[in-house]
Write a structure and sequence with these properties.
CATH topology of the largest domain: BirA Bifunctional Protein, domain 2
CATH class of the largest domain: Alpha Beta
Structural class: alpha+beta
Number of domains: 2
Strand order of the largest sheet: 3-12-13-14-17-11-10-6
CATH superfamily of the largest domain: Bira Bifunctional Protein, Domain 2
Helix content: 25-40%
Distance between the termini: 52 Å
Number of helices: 13
Shape: elongated
Oligomer: single chain
CATH architecture of the largest domain: 2-Layer Sandwich
Length: 436
Amino acid sequence: MMRHFSQVASKLRYGSIKFDFKNLKEILPYHIQNIKNRSANANAQRTVDLWELYKTQLHDLEMLRKKRNLHSEKKPLSEDEKAEHKKLARVHKQEVATQEANLEKLENELMEEALKIPNLTHPDVPIGDQPHQLALHGKIPKFDFKIKDHLELGALHNLFDFDSAAKITNSKFVYLKNEAALIELGLINWAMQNVVKKGFTPITTPDICKQEIASGCGFQPRDPSGQMYNLADNKLCLIGTAEISIAGMFAETVINADKLPMKYAGFSHCFRMEAGRGQVSKGLYRLHQFSKVEMFAFTTPEESDKTHEEMLSIEIELLNSLKLPFRVLDMPSTDLGASAYRKYDIEIWMPSREDWGEVTSTSNCRDYQALRLNSFYLDKSGEKKHVHTVNGTACAVPRVLLGLLEHGQKKDGTIELPECLHKYVGFSHISPLNKA
């Protein structure tokens, strides 16, 4: 980890992560209330107190270094003076080393606290734990036969193998087989093609990133209670979403304003440690590994809200084409991730659960990630400013697959697929035939 003891005036640099402590202190009461509204595990006052202590200790270190340097410039004349000079030089060296170690320890503590502080919150976000329903699309279906859940349908058509996956990994991993494997690939291509038509650049991303990139995006890979898989060297982790790897592309970068907005349709595998328990999380709904097409954009501050609404409209269009009933939610303050300024979720109706389940999410992160990743743009006047980042799910394969199976089932066991997918998967329905 690179140390930056001399760069603490208003922003402290921690590896590739920056944090603006001056701004935090200036609007401290707002942050304290915002943390309370979001039920976040953060302490803004303690962070500011640690920053003030850090500045004091940094000043003390600089004085010790000055004292050491002045001593080293002296030229002793006699042998006795030389001996005393060397003795004092060793003392000064040890004082500086001790203070540097203390400062490094304090810096780690400071940044651990700072990175817990969530983004500010859009004034229209519902405060508390209840979302605001913005729209309802489609009708909840009524079946004239006893329906099967997606696991029963998977067994009927030999679509999943959880048991074999558990043998080579652990629970909550799956082999998708037969038509399910083709539907996964078809959904990825369908989502990518449709989002690219909207002006997004297609991209496939690494499934591994540096921990400091994930931290800069608002994820906490070092937190033992978190959701990210750390690799053995403790410097890399598996990504939970392509949002992380795309955001990291322009860390430590200045973008020309005429290139903004830069919009990407990114495919990656996603890895989540916490896969949930109980009936709600069974089967495909929560997995440790899954495929996803993610929308991501770098914008100017003036364009981020507009881009956020654009991503929501794309999600709505995609789900409407799949003929799945869904509702659009403006998510409440307690449900916002650390990086989200505002978040919309879309939940489809899941027949076997007789309840709604999330399939997409889109968040405007404003400059939260750019501040931490040091991502800038040059405006028309040549001034350097932080970009805004926006992300949204185009297609999280397992949950969409779950919905397609349950909504498409017929009394004879056949599963009909929506017309928009036929050319991408190569078939229009799944027949209950014997499959190896």
